[in-house]
Amino acid sequence: MPEATLTSVPGRELDAPQLPGLVRATWLVARKDLAIEFRTRTAYFSALVFALLGLTIFYFAWDPTAVAAIDLAPGVLWVIFTFSGLLGLQRSFGVEQADRAMDALLAAPVEREAIYLGKAVANFLFVAGVQVVAIPAVALFYNVPLGNIWLSLTGIAVLAALGIVAVGTLFSAMAVNTRLAELLLPMLSLPFFVPIVMAAAQTTSRLLAGRPESEAWPWLRILLGFDLVFILACAIAFPYTLDE
Amino acid sequence: MRAFGSRRAVDGVSLALRGGECLALFGPNGAGKTTLLRLLAGLLAPSAGTCLVGGVALRAEGGRAARSRVGLISHASMLYSALTSRENVEFAAKMYGLRHPAEAALRALKAMRVADRADTPVRALSRGLQQRVSIARAIVHEPLLLLCDEPYTGLDEVGSAALTEALGERRAHGAALMLVTHNLSEGLALATHAAIMRRGRFARYEERARVDGASYASAYRELVTADA
Q1: Which of A60, A85, A86, B69 is the most exposed place for a label (fewest CB within 10 A)?
Q2: pTM of this prediction?
Q3: Shortest distance, CA A234 to any CA of chain B (angstroms)
């Protein structure tokens, strides 16, 4: 048997090609995912319809004489948001699975973290797109005035979306190769979403009730801490989920 | 060496390919051919040993530069069905850091004679045309090592001719090829070296010039039936 290593072609030594850095590769992956979603629009409309149907069901199951709208709306908003977000996360690595496109992505000369971050950026924009419709819909259904808290609520929505996307993107990569991916993703993700939903709902209810901002800060700090820890941890852990 | 649990899919394989060389790799199903290709593409990390391209380990620090010189053609198209042929190939060109991705993508699509379908979504293409686009994606960055796993699968006469031409062109530009196939005549026609893999090892490895087609075919059949 021959004993040697794979060698380069004489005179064509490996130069330094303009390989995409982390930010560029992240953007390329995110843009590609968004282009696919824009073409098909299946996941976005499914998530949107799911969110609106969920709101309708909650609305008709609600007894306004027993629970005030202002107490119920925050919980409904973030539960609906979490479950509709899962629909988008499910699709995230599903598009790579068909025809083994993931192989081409992994063979490309980009950092594996860039694949995770690119997916996360696309998922974030997806989830944000659902929120843009879901939040006003909640205000409409429950007659909740958002006029003076919309900026704060946007901030909470961004932080909650970051946390959900950070964890969900990682678990989507882990679950996609399993036979029960549709079941496994929620089972893995939902326990991690609990602190996000709690913090977001508690902060929102305090804002809606007109309580002092100082009361919301502890919950906001939990949300911020969760985001920081899980974005970093998931980006670091992601390459290991891809090894066979 | 690459093991999956206690099973060694590739074991004790040591191989060199130089620019312009083409290794045709034969073997029965489950012999470890695809695993070897995936190791060389950097998709799998070896359990022991290293895979080097231009002296750089694919999975080590700096392996990105080595991976940028490798192209992979598989029987799976590795394309996004919702995107057009052009978008798929251009995306690959950008991921490999090409300076003019649009031009490179069009050049690759032309080489595979599928430029007239550049703006057609991949899902609307036939299996053969998808394979041509997939090959265009694999060669867009002009790799120095081209790994081909049953690349002729699904191709019609025009597609096969375009692929043979593209492989010849890559070799003329100093690229090394590795061609995994079950079709002996197809593999030997292109090869400078031939190998038969069995149970994760090279059962035979020789220069193409020393191989006689007929006796090689019977030796191959013997090895394959011995495993059946």
Answers
A1: A60
A2: 0.89
A3: 21
